[in-house]
Design a protein that fits this description.
GO biological process, one term: establishment of mitotic spindle orientation
Helix content: over 70%
Main location: membrane
Family: Belongs to the GPSM family.
Strand content: under 5%
Largest sheet: none
Structural class: mainly alpha
Pfam family, one: TPR_12
GO molecular function: G-protein alpha-subunit binding; GDP-dissociation inhibitor activity
CATH class of the largest domain: Mainly Alpha
CATH topology of the largest domain: Serine Threonine Protein Phosphatase 5, Tetratricopeptide repeat
Amino acid sequence: RTIGDRIGEAKASGNLGNTLKILGQFDEAVVCCQRHLDISQEQGDKVGEARALYNIGNVYHAKGKHLSWNMAQDPGYLPQEVKETLQKASEYYERNLSLVKELGDRAAQGRAYGNLGNTQYLLGNFSEAIAFHKERLAIAKEFGDKAAERRAYSNLGNAHIFLGRFDISAEYYRKTLQLSRQLKDQAVEAQACYSLGNTYTLLQDYERAIEYHLKHLVIAQELGDR
């Protein structure tokens, strides 16, 4: 501010916002991220503007998750305050998405799609969530980003469960399992086995359910995860 560096001030405000978000000070975080947005727009800095929109989305997303953790409920069954917070997150992600499309930034589009999928899932809009996660999946494959691909499969599996499409969920969870093994991520592998066990229980294929729950158990024991 002293040297009149507006872009520098915008970036610093954004960093402050992100830090306050991590500290759980969501309302202060929004103020700082909004300053990042305002200055970026004033300076015609499209990249900064996109980043600020994404960061504000993240603050509302984190706030919504934080509020809903205190009330263990299924996606979709949310108190008004939580719903409004997640809808705000979604709006900012949408604005970010249209801007990064304009900028031709595919990686940023992938991140926006993933987060839109997650917020729509929490809001109980499972069909919308699926559409966004499919976009996320396509971009992850484009970039050969196996970790993002794995997350997209997981999220697609979860959303299909709530639509009662258990067989499709099982397919996605199997792909999650395959990738978690490729990535040598045992905790995620255990989670995928757990999800498959539950899905096969819903499909009334109990032999298979037992098989996956036993695999889950073995990994949990290996990891010493009580």
